[in-house]
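FW: tagging you since you asked about this chain on Friday. Here's the raw sequence from the shared folder, copied in full. Didn't touch anything.
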Amino acid sequence: MNLTISKMAEGISPSPTLSLDAKFKQMKKQGIPVVGFGAGEPDFETPDRIKNAAIDAINKGMTRYTPAAGTLELRQAVCDKFKRDLGIEYTVNNIVVSNGGKHSLTNIFMCICNAGDEVIIPSPFWVSYPEMVKMANGKPVFIYTTEEDGFKFSAEQFEKAITDKTRAIVVNSPSNPTGMIYTREELEKITEIAVKNNIYIIFDEIYEKLIYEGEHINPATFGDEAKELTVIVNGLAKAYAMTGWRIGYTAANEKLTKAMSSLQSHATSNPNSIAQAAAIEALLGDQSEIGTMCAEYVKRRNYMVERINSIDGISCLNPNGAFYIFMNVKELLGKEHYGKVINSAQELCDDMLERALVALVPSEGFGIDGYARLSYATSMEDIIEGLNRIEKYIKGEA
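HL: got it, structure written out here
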């Protein structure tokens, strides 16, 4: 039988972060004492108030289809959240609730890209952005940033990357994988160029509540033209420890919102009705648990940054948000470790997993070589043990 799949599907790479997480969990299941720094999800439990809202929804029979774009109540809660947090006005006609942030982003790219349209993506980037653009028959165009510049692109780099096929630029702040945030001044310059060239700003703020220094700035607050071109992507996974609940949402102009709602109505219908009910409680209820999580993340981050920078051969910047360390491993590459030369971050992470039983995410999947991403969304006990293992590996004692 001559079975084929589409060229588009053949061109999509699997998520390296999810692949690593699956391998880590399989090793744990087999009883191998591996320490994992790969997870992109909080290690906290979903707050009880949110769980109870879901239980109440089940008991009330809220188990049927909802509007494709989400219930009116949840979309209004999202509008209330934007008013409370950013001081900007949206109506329910600007909001689409989807099955997680990934689904929201896929909807966006599917609705703004024609074949060959370009989407500018700063590198290092979250692993799924380029693949999503390719799924929409678009072309990812990369702006390369450096550690010296805080892994942030400049307005000048943005302007140079624009062509007559440019449809959008992706801005992720705080960033996955680097944890860096864009300042008001930086975003104002970027937004000015986007408005001048009529380019969408896909603003992924999924980590907006996890900021430790500085402030969260959203380009939609810079005036009506900026708001019209900004497509906000957010969700409940990171701030409320709700990764498995799969609720994301977008705020955009009404034309794009209508298109995304129509697309979603055919692709998936509505998001989970019970999770939507819980999401209303998450957004509108007591927000104090976020502060509790952030305080713990700061402790972990501070320990990891100090410890990593004390070990010969590796180093890192101090991230301002999210829950990732982007560790520089360039000094370890091109050298012999345990009888073989390690030439890439991928090879280094593979060898560390095999010899030291510590799981890191190599930076190639983020569009850059010479780094590894470590998540501190794990216990301090595992962080200490994992960094002990990394140090022993580097010293040749693994």
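FW: The longest strand covers residues 166-172.
HL: agreed, and The mean pLDDT is 95.
FW: great, closing this out.
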